[in-house]
Amino acid sequence: MHRFALLLALLAAACGGEPARPQLKPTDGWARESVASQTSAAAYFTIANNGTGADRLVGVKSEAASHAMLHSTMTQEGAVRMRHLQGGLEIPSKTAVELSPGRTHVMLTGLKAPLRRGEKVKLQLQFERSGRKQAVIKVLDPLSAGRQESR
Amino acid sequence: MIRVIRLLLWLLVLLAGAGLAYLALRPAPETQPPRGMASLGGPFTLVGADGRPFSSARLNGRPYAIFFGFTHCPDVCPTTLARMVRLRNQLGSGAEAFDILFVSVDPARDGPGEVGAYAGLFGSPVIGLTGSQAQIDQVKKQFGIFSQQAPDGAGGYTIDHTATVLLFDKSGKFDSTISPEEQDPAALAKLKRITD
User: Fold this and answer.
1) ipTM for the complex shown
2) Are A98 and A37 in contact (CB under 8 A)?
3) A145: nearest CB among B86, B121, B152
C-alpha cells in the first residue's frame, strides 16, 4: 500500500500535478498558571500537518505578552540551556510536531497579567507557507504534566 | 557486482539490528553521583519566603530534595517542581516527612516574596529560598551547582543552570540525584529510599 502511494506521488510529481501543500492545525495548547512576579511563561501545543508539503513555524505573537519566541531547551552535562530557535521550527508533512516541557516551547516574556487557571490565551503563529494560524492555549493547574491529563 | 552490493547491504541491516538490540537491551543508565558528590550539602543559611533567615538546621531529621532554579524560568523549573510534587504525592505514606527545596540562582530578581509566591504555586511541600548573592554562591558551591546568565533574545536574560534534583536523607547525607530525563519509577525508588 505504501509503495503504491509512493508510486502515485511520484507519478503526480512527474506529470507536474498538484504541488505539495502543507495543511496545518494547531491543537492541545496549554500553559501553567503563573504568579504576578513571574514575567515569563512557557506555552505548549501540537501542530499537525496533514498535508503533502512541509512548512516552517517562523514567528509567534501574543496579546498576552510583549514578546513571544520559539525556544528550545537543551541539556548538557546536567545543565539546561534555553535558546531562541532563530531558524524557526520545521513541520514535516504527515506528522504532528509536539511542543512539550523540557524540549521546545513558546516563551512568553513580558506577561501583561498572570496566567489564571481556566482562562485561554491566543497565540498567532506565523508559518512560512501557510501564513497565519491561531493556537488556543488553555491555562492549567501548575502541577499539570500536560493537556492530556486535563481531558 | 550486484551480489556484492546486496551482501554489503544485508551486512548493514544486520549491524543496524545489532545496534538497535543493544540500545533496547542495555541496562538503564543509573545516575551515579560523580566523584566527590558524597561530600555535597552540609549546613547552610539562606532567606525564606518570610524574609527571615532559613537555617538548614530546620531540616534536621527530615529527608529533602533540593532544586536550584529561578522564578522567571518558564520551562524546566516549573516542569521539575511539578514533577517532584507529583512524585511526592505518589509516594503515599511517609511523603509528609520529605521537603522540596527550591533555591533561586537569581537573587537579583528573586526576593523572598518572589520565591514564596512561586513555591506557593506548587503547594505546601515546596519551600522557596533565596539570599544574598554571597549566600547563593556559597550554597551553589556546597551543592555543586552551575549557573550562568545568558541573553534571552528579548533584551533580558535567562540563566543556564544545573537542572538535576539532589536528594538527601534524614541525617543530611547526600543520597542520589534525579535528572530531568530519568523515568518516574527510578525516581520514585530513590524517594522511597530516603523516606523509609
Assistant:
1) 0.84
2) no
3) B86
